[in-house]
Hints:
Elements: H1 2-10, E1 15-17, H2 26-33, E2 39-43, H3 48-56, E3 61-64, H4 70-81, E4 86-87, H5 89-99
Parallel strand pairs: 1-2, 2-3, 3-4
Helix pairs in contact: 3-5
Amino acid sequence: xxxxxxxxxxxxxxxxxxxxxxxxxxxxxxxxxxxxxxxxxxxxxxxxxxxxxxxxxxxxxxxxxxxxxxxxxxxxxxxxxxxxxxxxxxxxxxxxxxxx
Length: 100
């Protein structure tokens, strides 16, 4: 609820969302946030089902911690804001594994 309220109030260009958050998981919050701003998942979760579900629910990209630099994060935020998807290698592999 807090993520939704802050997103609604501040109207950010992009929301950075973790899968695991206190009180509610990011996957449950995601559908409520994507109607307000583009969402980039930024998380340690690398399971193919979670990556797939995040994208199905509207995430604009999925980055796994430890697989990107600060510059790559900045570019991913810009890409998400501009409607271009951005994935780390593990997230892309997880998505492909889910599709096979």
